[in-house]
Amino acid sequence: MSVLEAKNITKIFPGVKALEDVSVSFHKGEIHCIMGENGAGKSTLIKCLTGVYEAENGEIFINDKSALKDRSLFKRIAYVPQEISLFQKMTVAENLFIPYDKAGIKGRINQKKLEEQARPILDKFNIHVEPGKLADEISVSSQQLLQIARAAAFADYDVLILDEPTTCLTQKDTENLFDIIRKIKKEGKAIIFISHKLDEVFELGDCITVFCNGRKVSTAELKDVDVPWVVEQMTGKQLDYQETFCSEKVSEEMILDVKHLTGAMFHDVSFSLKKGEILGFSGLVGAGRSELMQAIFGYLPIYSGEIVCQGKVWKTGDTHYSVTNGMFYLPEERRSQGILPDMSVKENISINTLDTVSSWCGISKRKETAKAEEIIKAYNVKTSNLNKEIKFLSGGNQQKVIIGRSTCTEPKILIFDEPTKGIDIGAKTEVYRLMKKLAENGIAIILISSEMDEIKKCANRIICMYHGEVTGESDYGSEKEEILKAILGIKTSSEEGKTDEQRA
Amino acid sequence: MSREHENKQNTSVADILKKLSRNSVALIGSVLILMMIIATIFSPHFLTIFNLQSLMRDIAFIGMVAVAQSLLLLIGELDLSVGKIATLSGVLGGILMTSMKVNPFLAFAIGLLSGILFGVINGLLVTKLRLNSMVTTIGMQSLYGGITLVITKGKAVTNIPDAIFFLGKGNIGVFPIPFIFAIVVLIVIVYFVTKTKTGRYIYAIGNSREASKIMGIRVDAVRVLIYGIVGFISALAGMLYVARLGSAQAAIGNNWPMNSIASSVIGGVSLTGGVGSPVGAIIGSAIICVISNVIVLFGVNVYWQEAVSGFVVVIAIALPSLLTIIRECSVAKAKA
Where do the TM regions start and end (chain B) (predicted)? Predict the structure, then answer.
């Protein structure tokens, strides 16, 4: 008997089908792993299962009762999010018991008593910290375990969902966490375990469901399958169309040389970039790719190392210098870092080229409008009105505005950070074509992407990063498996000794 | 038939409300005109040259400072030391004119320069030490005010030369000279924010400081510049006030920080930055001044004046969001 079952779930966001006809069921005493690339639909499924999103189509049954009719059933699902979401300035005990009524504490709160009550729970979850400490004073792995304890200690739940719980855990903490998960499994709970790490899935899981492009690809008992099978399922069936977007006019001229760069989230990174090339950076979320690029661009500090651009040492830590010297960064966080939300489409386009649209008496409305119209046409931005505030445009159109704005000052280097995040397939293809065109016009492009398919189609070369270090470099047309291994940090035999050393 | 007609009327009312709640300058402008009409109807003293001139003189000072304050609000910051900058600059200028016998116009100019200096100090503290503007300027207003007290020992600086009196007391035609200064400041600042690159960057920074930095805008330099401009305009208001009173004293500009912020907000400038116009700020200050003027003309009990004026200011601040609420209700009704 299944304790949680999703039947024919379809979830549509404007322009994207995030989930299409997904059916999957979860059973008591079973650890069910879910895998898939970024954007495959895992998070959307979880949000449907926990009642955060309401699906356009389909049914969810909890203990064989329809949860869409009786939403209180969603209380039977405990969820531990990927990001740490504790009250950082409250104590461990307080974090554990909030909201107090859930934990059965009524009336006045006695801090001492609270801490005494917290001890056995902390012991059970192998969290070795004083319950009176503040949450931000304990280690990241303890915080992660505390989150799980908070979700799993009191709530009368049937299903525990863990969303990439090991992302920031060390090897030892991960093993500790696994022991706890196995304990919970023995109590007869169903566990949904989402992870990017294949070795963990095989160590812990009972069965696996693989997602790809919003569809469920397959479900299998883990004892019946092996690593190559999973990799094939994750990547194999995506090549619906064969158009590729990598630049065909790569020059031999080096434009950027990055030498032994070290910063907060990356360590000793070196690479070089050619004119007319699309250089892909692949890796998991948190591998340090964005931080590396933001540091090169001057937005984040660099601790050591050097950047050389066409024989000249690049000034670091100054975004104004970067922009005026032809380097642009197109951020992943489009809403907070890319657009000026309350300003019009026109103003968002002209902000980088105000000199060219000015006359003797200042910014000329006529010239500004003409420039904006030119960009909108060239980049096929769909907007009803130039004076519309940009926050009302779709993600894809916002992205095209940002690309248009960056390219109207003759840049030399463009850094795209997840340029197609949250935009639909059609607009994605448009963005790819734009990148290819720009590269073939002699611009060097760096493309950070967590989507394997995207990076394979667009990049002339791919650099893989894991935990802030470069773990591999491959050319266009390399095997997916090779890239996947590098970004998942799976050791090849020659590197084994080295990686172990770093872990320790 | 009649129902159709009603519907049509409903939507057109909703449309007008919608337009008004979107365009805050037009909204607040019409409120100002409405208030003045009401005042004219109910008090024979309102629409007299004498009253209007004193009203304009009041608007000039608060309006000037409000225009400056609106620049800071546009980048999502504020300066609570505007009043004390005005006082200190006024006292410095005043002492130069009197005890030091410097040419009064030169002393006037030096006073203005000192204002720029005080503003830039605020700006450097906020940007370089990454401090919160509100808390920093609360501290700085104490500091500037304290220095004023040390310099003056609490006494007014008197014997200001007659030569500069006309700047504070004089008129050109019917317009008081400080009011003309305020209008010039307004025009220059409006040109600055709408027509220049740096002006556009102010809005960009107010929209998103991170995005602005990523676009290569020198965010901190623009911020320091704005603090400098605010210091300059505050000092200008302070020096003109000295010329108006004929003496420089520590009490000048005590209510300017709060009034300038309230004026800007009434005028539709967002407290979080990025939205609004200096024109709104000056209209907002006109509303505040008309309120206190009308309260006196209507003969409201002296002890009630402050409470009534506060109440009306809160209503004025709430107006745009009230209109939005009414609009949403009427739209919902029309749909039902």
Answer: 25-47, 59-75, 82-99, 105-126, 133-152, 172-193, 224-244, 282-301, 307-326
What is the CATH code for A254-488? 3.40.50.300
Nearest chain A residue (CA) to B273 = A342
Identify the pLDDT of residue B235.
Answer: 97
Rounded mean pLDDT, A12-31: 83
Return the CATH fold of B10-335: ABC transporter involved in vitamin B12 uptake, BtuC (1.10.3470)
Q: What pLDDT sits at residue A422?
A: 67
A254-488 matches A2-235 in CATH topology:
yes
With vertex at residue B88, the alpha carbon angle to CA B83 and CA B94, rounded to the nearest 5 degrees, is: 125
pTM above 0.95, yes or no: no
- B271 touches A at CB < 8 Å: no
Q: Where are the domains of chain B?
A: 10-335
- Chain B residues within 8 A of A297 when measuring between CB atoms: 214
B271-296 per-position pLDDT tens digit: 889 999 999 999 999 999 999 899 88
Strand partners, A475: A461
Give pLDDT, residue A322: 94
Split at pLDDT 50, 70, 90, the class of A11 is confident
- Report whether pLDDT(B166) > 50: yes
Please report the ipTM that was assigned to this predicted complex. 0.85
Q: In this complex, which of B197, B208, B210 lies closest to A354 when CB atoms are compared?
A: B197
Q: Are A35 and A207 in contact (CB under 8 A)?
A: no
Domain limits, chain A: 2-235, 254-488
pLDDT of residue B301 exceeding 80: yes
For domain A2-235, the CATH superfamily is P-loop containing nucleotide triphosphate hydrolases (3.40.50.300)
Task: Provide the CA A104 distance to its chain's centre, in angstroms.
Answer: 37
Q: What is the DSSP string of A358-403?
A: EETTEE-HHHHHHHHHHHHHHTT---S-TTSBGGGS-HHHHHHHHH
A347·B200 Cβ contact <8 A: yes
